[in-house]
Amino acid sequence: MNAYLPNRSTSVTLPRLREMANAGEKIAMLTCYDASFATLMDQCGVDMLLVGDSLGNVCQGRGTTLGVSVNDIAYHTECVARGNRTAFLTADMPFGSYGTPRTAYENAVKLMQAGAQMVKIEGGLWLRDTVQFLTERGIPVFAHLGLTPQYVHQLGGFKVQGKTAEAAQRLKDEALALEAAGASMLLLEAIPAALGKELTEALSMPTIGIGAGPDCSGQVLVMHDMLDVFPGKKARFVRNFMAGQSSIADAIRSYVVTVKEKSFPSTEHCF
Ligand SMILES: Nc1nc(=O)c2c([nH]1)NC[C@@H]1CN(c3ccc(C(=O)N[C@@H](CCC(=O)O)C(=O)O)cc3)CN21
Ligand SMILES: CC(C)C(=O)C(=O)O
Ligand SMILES: [Mg+2]
User: Fold this and answer.
1) Does the predicted interface ipTM exceed a cut of 0.85?
2) Where on this chain does Mg(2+) bind (predicted)?
3) Is 172 annotated as a binding residue?
């Protein structure tokens, strides 16, 4: 068995994820929406599972994530929690569910009670109070910057972010402010690889990238993309891990090993 695929006997925790980031061991994360895949991913060594609002696209067949509800995320989180044993389970707060610290708290409590161990929210400086409010009340916060799909109509599409010097500086200011407010981790989506590296070095919290280059503390992909079952358009950062494999378990193990060995993402997956 590959040295990167130990039979994990203890649960992945936030302190463990910080330790991995500090030691340079890459964190392998995938989205997950049901119990069977949760069991498989956990057994294949995936460190973190995300019940993403991408379920709006891959499970519900929508064009954007905007129609996803807190109850949808809570339902899928309960399913994933039943199948998962040791991976660290995170859930997206959907569009419209965290407009104020109080509503964010009420909705985050529902997701934590469904089994999430951390919640992810998209946005910059305006979320400082919310990050502090949740963190003080026992809810770890995973901040999400760069291409934030809940902002699709403001961004004018799913486009790479942080390309100009000003935009890159703004992202850095936002990341540092969210860390200072108490964020536990940061997700970086579709930004130049050099900026992913710069932000990861500037922060003490672990970063997880999707189209943010190889120097983030870890990587995430949508499971339907990496298993090549999503019928929609594929972003540049997607790699088909089913290619050359004869089972889904092998594809997931290949993803974990490739992330840990730092051979994914390669330049063809980066901006
Ligand atoms: N199946 C799936 N995979 C995802 O990664 C994903 C979802 N759904 N739903 C929510 C968002 C939407 N995402 C997307 C969607 C499209 C691109 C995309 O096509 N990006 C272009 C960049 C174009 C440019 O800026 O020039 C690319 O070529 O990668 C990126 C992220 C990421 N998330
Ligand atoms: C793509 C990841 C980062 C996500 O937010 C989702 O799956 O919803
Ligand atoms: Mg999401």
Assistant:
1) yes
2) 53, 92, 122
3) no
